[in-house]
C-alpha cells in the first residue's frame, strides 16, 4: 500500500483521489491551505450573489471522505523535499509520501501595477477573495464604485456579482472588444452590448496606470493612462488572467517553467511526482491546445488520467475534442471543436445572430474540403455528445447545418432557430 | 397559506425594497387585514363588497409587487439575494410565517368554529360568513371552512403563479407548466365541483384531477353511496376515478414521467410551485434525508393501501346475489393485483433493483398478510384487531390533515415547499415508482459540461442532489423528481434537459466523462 499525497483540493486533485480510490487500496491524503473541503470554484460567484450558501458549493458531504478513506489535511506546503519524499508545512509539521500529485491550481495575475497590494484590491479566485469582497463590498453604501481590471471570464463574472448588489461597476478592458482574443468579432461585440445593457460602465481599449490610496492605505481611485482620467472607487478587482500557483516548488528540484513541467503522462522530471490541472505545463501543447490549460474540464480530465498511471496503467493525457462553456451575464456560451477569433489559413466562419441580440452562433469550417471544425453557440444550448460525434466522424459543414436540430439542447417548448440559421447559411452560400 | 402572501416574495434586493414594492406590500397587507377583521368577528359593511375588496387588494398587491420586482430587468435567472432574505433563508420572517401558517392550518382542520363556521345549520359568522356571497354565487349554498380555504388557495396559486411566470420570462417550459397548474386549480379544483353541486346537489365533492390515494376518501362508504345514488353521472364519476388510477395514470407517467401530474396538474404541487417557490431552496439535500424520504413515503403508501382496502371491505357483503363484488372477491382481486405488480417488477426489473427489492418485498408481504388476516380472523371489520373505521380516521388525521396540511404547507418556510410531496404523498410514491421503473422520462446530462456549481441541487425542491449525477455525466432518473424543470433553468452551463426518450440506456452511470481520451472512456466505462 502506497501513500499518495495530493497537494490541492480542487477539481483536479479531488478527481484524481476519487479515481485512485476506485482503482486501488492506497492511502490517500489531500492537502489544502484554502479550505477544509472541496468546493466548486466556479460557484463562488453565486455565494456572493445570494443564490447559494458556501456549503452548497461543496459537492460531497463530510461522510464521503471518511467512507472513501480520503484523508484531508489543512496546511500550507512550504517546501517539497523530493529526495526524502517529504512535504514541509508552513505550520512546522511534515508529511511523507510515496507518490505526489501537485494540483495547486492558479493564482490571479498582477503585473506590477502601483498600488496593486492595497486594501480593497483583490482577485476573484480563492475563497479568501470572496471573504475579502464581502468585507470591502458588502453593499453600495460601503462600496460606492468598483473598478474591474481585465476583460476575461473572471472579470465579467465579478462584474455580474457586484451588479447583483447594485454596486456601480467600471470595467476596464485592454482589448478593443470584450475577450476578442478568443471570440470572433460578432460574438464579442454582442457581449459588449450585453454588458452595457446591464448598466455596467464598460471601457474598451484602456489600461490601468495606477491604483491610488487614501490616508489609511485603502483604495481611493484608479488612473487610466490613455485619458488620464481618475476614477474614484472603493474596490479594485484584478482579473487579468491567472498563472500557475507554483512558487513554493522553486527550491525542490522539480522542473518549473511557467507551470510545473510535465510530459504527456503528466509526470514531472522527478520520479513519482506528477502535476495536473491549472498548474501543469506540457512541454508542447497537445493537439491545438495551449501548454497550460486553466479550465475546469481539463483539470478533471487530467485527474481521471493520472489516477490510471498511478495505479499501474500508465497512459498519456490525450483529451478528446475541445469543449468549454461560460456564462456572460444572462447569455450562456458553449463551444465544441475549434473556433478561433479570426479564421486561420483555409478556415471560414459562418456567423448568425438573432435580432434580439442575445443569441448567435459561429461555425468554423475548412474552406478546402468543407470539413466542420467547430462551433460557438450563445443563448442556444447544444448537445456535447452530438458535436463530439460529428467531429469524430469528420462531418462536413453542410451536414452539420442541415442536422442542427439534432444538436439542440434547449428545454422543451423553447423556440427553435435552426430554420433561420439554415436559411441564413444557404443564403450566404449563394452570395459567395 | 393566505398569511404569507406578501412577505414570501423573495426579498431579492439585499438593499431593501423599493417604494413601489412597499406600496404593493401595503395593499396586500391591507387586504389581509380586512380578512383578519372579519376573523375577529367585527361587523363589516356589505359582505360581498368586503370580500371583493379584500381579495382584490391581496391580488393587486402581489401583481404590483411582481412588476416592481421584475419589470425593467433582463430575462434570466432571478435568484439574487434569496439567501440573504429573512423570509427565504429561515430567518425571523421565515419562522414567523411558518408559525402563522401552521396555526392557520390547525384552526382550519380542527377548530373551524374559530373561523366562524355555523354549527348544525346555524348561520356562519366571522371570516367564513364573508365568503357566503361568493359561495352562494357559485353553488347556491353558504360557505364552509373548506370553501374559504379553497378560495384563498386558488387566489394564492393564481397570483403567485403570475409572479412565477414573470420570474421565468426566459423559460417557456416554466411558463406553460405554471399556466397549466393555474388552470387546473381554478377550473377543476375550485369551479367545477361547485357547479357540479349546483347541478346535482347529491354528488359528493369531486375534484376530477385528484386521484386515489391522494384523494383517499373517494372509496369511503358515504362517498361511494353518494355517487351510486345519483344515477349514471355518479356511476360515470366513480368509474372515471378507477380508470384514473389503473389506466390514465400509468400511460401518462410512462410517456412523460410523473411531472404530468405533480407539476402540471396537482393542486398540492400547484401551491408548492407558485406560493412555495420562494422556499424551494430550503429542502435538505443530505443523503440521510433521502433515506428518510424513501422509508416514510412508502410507509404512507402501504398504510393507504391497507386503510382503503379495509374501508371498502367493511361495507361489502358476503352474498354475491346482493352485489357482485363481495368481501371475498374484493380481497382476492386486491391480492391478485398486488401479486401481479410484484411479479412483473421482479421479472422485468430484477437487474435494476438490488437492495431496494427487499424493501419492496417486505412492503408487499405486509400488505398481503394484513389483508389475509383481516379476511380470515372472522371479525368483519378489523385488521389486527383495529377497526377499519379507526384506521380510516387515523389516516385522515395523521396523513390527510397533519402531514399534508399542517406540516406540508405550514412548514414551507422551514422544510421547503415540497415536504409533503417528498416525504408523505402516497400518490407521488406510486407515480415515482412508475417513473423509476417504467417511464421514458429522464433529465439528460450534457456530456462533460457540468462544473459542479450546485445551483441545480440547491434549487431542487425535492431535495435531489442533481449535481451528484450531472458531475458524473449521468442522467437523473429518480422516483421523486416532479419535473419542475428548475434545475435545468438555473444551470449556468446548459447541462440539464428534461426529456422523454427511449427506455434503452436511460440509466447510464459513467466514471470518465465525455471529452477525455476515447480509449480511456471505453476502458473505464465499459468494464
From TrEMBL, chain A:
Keywords: FAD, Flavoprotein, Oxidoreductase. Transmembrane segments: none annotated. It comes from the Bacteria. GO terms for molecular function: oxidoreductase activity. It holds the Pfam family Pyr_redox_2. Residues 3-288 form the FAD/NAD(P)-binding domain. Its cofactor is FAD. InterPro entries: FAD-bd_OxRdtase, FAD/NAD-bd_sf, FAD/NAD-binding_dom. This is FAD/NAD(P)-binding oxidoreductase. It comes from Flavivirga jejuensis.
From TrEMBL, chain B:
Keywords: 4Fe-4S, Electron transport, Iron, Iron-sulfur, Membrane, Metal-binding, Transmembrane, Transmembrane helix, Transport. Gene3D superfamilies: 3.30.70.20. The keyword Transmembrane helix applies. Residues 441-469, 472-501 form the 4Fe-4S ferredoxin-type domain. It comes from Flavivirga jejuensis. This is 4Fe-4S dicluster domain-containing protein. The chain crosses the membrane at residues 23-42, 48-70, 91-111, 146-165, 177-197, 233-254, 295-316, 328-347, 359-377, 397-415. The keyword Zinc does not apply.
